[in-house]
Amino acid sequence: MNPTCSICRNGNVAGARYCGRCGAPLESRAPDQPEEGRRRFVLRQKFWSWGDDYVIRHANGRDAYQVDGQAFSFGDNLSFQDDTGRELASIRQRLLSWGPTYEIVRHGQVAAVVKKKRFTFFRCEFLVDVPGPDDLVADGDFLHHEYTFTRHRRPVARVSKRWFTFTDTYGVEVEPGEDEILVLASTVVVD
């Protein structure tokens, strides 16, 4: 059996150690399939760019989204776009706030406010404050991109870098029925 990519499920040439499509290590056995409806994405920060620019691909390698960072602006301003360049959301930093705070804006309305929780001992947490009772909490190892988004202590999405050899590449797995744009935009903010 030829090795198979553990992230994008791409079949590869025998003898290869890493996927030619996404760079993840290859498995020689059939990988566990994600639960029905889970969506997997690969985030990669563009190396040669002005500002914070990201390419977000589906696990099978197709382009899904892109994030265009404005290089010369006060605070961070990012445009979250689909693969054709149409803006789906914008991410902007609040300049006068306690600690780093970002707003994710969709259709002219604030869809979420992402901020680092203060007063957490020995660990770090981010709060994704959405209107209503459905806030998300990101908790885990942010330095190594190993963390989980939860809502009411139920996992909503997982972020992991362990399968990637590239420094600015990591995977995001979103549970069925969740807002992938909100989760991916929040992941960019946490990064």
Profile the largest sheet: 12 strands, antiparallel, barrel
Mean pLDDT: 77
Radius of gyration: 17 Å
Cα end-to-end separation:
37 Å
Helix content: under 10%
Q: Major sheet: order of its strands? A: 3-4-5-6-7-8-9-10-11-12-13-14
Strand content: 35-45%
Q: Number of DSSP strands?
A: 14
- Low confidence ranges: 28-34
Specify the overall morphology: globular
| Number of H/I helices | 1
Give a written overview of the molecule.
The radius of gyration is 17 Å and the shape is globular. The termini are far apart. The chain has one helix at 180-190, and strands at 4-5, 26-27, 39-45, 54-58, 63-69, 77-82, 87-94, 101-106, 109-116, 125-129, 136-141, 146-151, 154-160, 169-174. Strands 3-4-5-6-7-8-9-10-11-12-13-14 form a twelve-stranded antiparallel beta barrel. Strands 1-2 form a two-stranded antiparallel sheet. It is mainly beta. Mean pLDDT is 77; it is low at 28-34. It is 6% helix and 42% strand. A hairpin with a 7-residue loop joins strand 5 (63-69) and strand 6 (77-82).
Keywords:
1 helix, mainly beta, 191 residues, 42% strand, 12-stranded antiparallel barrel, single chain, two-stranded antiparallel ribbon
Topology:
Elements: E1 4-5, E2 26-27, E3 39-45, E4 54-58, E5 63-69, E6 77-82, E7 87-94, E8 101-106, E9 109-116, E10 125-129, E11 136-141, E12 146-151, E13 154-160, E14 169-174, H1 180-190
Antiparallel strand pairs: 1-2, 3-4, 3-14, 4-5, 5-6, 6-7, 7-8, 8-9, 9-10, 10-11, 11-12, 12-13, 13-14
